[in-house]
Design brief:
322 residues; mainly alpha; 13 helices; J_dom_sf; DnaJ_domain; DnaJ_domain_CS; J domain-containing protein
């Protein structure tokens, strides 16, 4: 280090003195660099104004400064992180200012704002693709300190979470944050959706009820038809049986009397003569020999033999009024 410095101090001027006039103005900076100090490095955690006596860093005062102005970098020069590290040490909100001239007379809000601007400038210039896009269209850069007169305006412009370097939380972190400060979201059902759901449920229930009632009615009507058909068949059979067994009216009358009073004396005193007249006349007709007539037709007595008494009259039973 000391040998290079002595070379610049003693032999450098003698070797280059003859060619200074022939060099273009841009090459003079090589000579001047021999007399300037190396990039700002010290044991302190920040840069000071005394580190660069000839060209100290100052925050851009233009209303339309660029990332190159923020990092004090020429547009065609290769990117170096040295200036970025020095500015981060100065403007980082978690570090102490220690009366540094760049952050001594500014508020914490402005200091945080400048730190974010430095980070954004570093993100643009350190990436060749983003740097080329910025050089062509100005993409990715929209920070102008002069339009932020208050901390509220600066926070609104930058958003609540600052640059994209701070937006590194996962969705689980955001869920925990929202549940902690805003509570769990309550899902409110739309009234129209709820009404439609209720109407659909009512219609579905009505359709099921109508189907069930229809099936019940069909079964009931079928059962009624079956009972009616059975009754009709039973009555028709009895009618046919009666006509077959008792072809004459006299036989039907005598059958009725026997079923009414199996003793053949009648239920009342005045009925005894009727019973005797009808039944005894039948018996007398049966006692007459009539072989030819018996071979052709059956007598009412034969019909009476097939009749089963429905009830037996008790001797002590009183006559019942008909």
């Amino acid at each position: 280090m000391f040998k290079k410095a002595s070379l610049c101090n003693h032999g450098g001027i003698q070797l280059l003195s003859s060619s200074i006039s022939a060099l273009p103005p841009t090459r003079v900076s090589f000579q001047a660099s021999c007399f300037t100090r190396s990039p700002l490095k010290s044991d302190r955690g920040y840069a000071t104004a005394s580190d660069s006596s000839e060209n100290p860093y100052q925050w851009p005062s233009s209303s339309s400064f660029t990332p190159y102005d923020v990092l004090n970098l020429r547009r065609n020069a290769p990117y170096s992180k040295a200036q970025y590290y020095d500015l981060v040490k100065i403007y980082h909100p978690d570090r102490s200012c220690d009366e540094h001239p760049l952050c001594r007379n500014i508020s914490p809000e402005v200091r945080l704002q400048r730190y974010r601007i430095v980070v954004t400038a570093h993100e643009i210039l350190s990436d060749p693709a983003r740097r080329a896009a910025y050089d062509q269209t100005g993409a990715g850069w929209s920070h102008h300190p002069q339009r932020y007169s208050t901390a509220a305006e600066a926070a609104h412009a930058w958003g609540p979470y600052g640059s994209t370097i701070y937006a590194n939380a996962t969705w689980e972190d955001w869920e925990r944050f929202n549940n902690r400060y805003h509570g769990k979201q309550q899902h409110v059902v739309d009234q129209r959706t709820f009404t439609r759901l209720v109407v659909l449920l009512v219609l579905f229930g009505g359709a099921v009820q109508a189907s069930w009632i229809g099936q019940m009615n069909s079964g009931y009507e079928k059962r009624l038809r079956e009972v009616s058909e059975d009754s009709m068949r039973f009555l028709s059979g009895r009618r046919q049986q009666t006509v077959t067994q008792m072809p004459h009216n006299d036989a039907r009358v005598q059958t009725f009397l026997i079923r009414r009073d199996p003793t053949g004396s009648g239920l009342k005193e005045e009925e005894q003569e009727v019973y005797e007249h009808e039944l005894h006349s039948l018996r007398r007709a049966q006692s007459r020999p009539s072989n030819a007539h018996e071979s052709e037709t059956s007598t009412p007595v034969d019909n009476l033999a097939n009749v089963t008494p429905m009830a037996t009259r008790r001797p002590d039973a009183h006559p019942v009024e008909s």
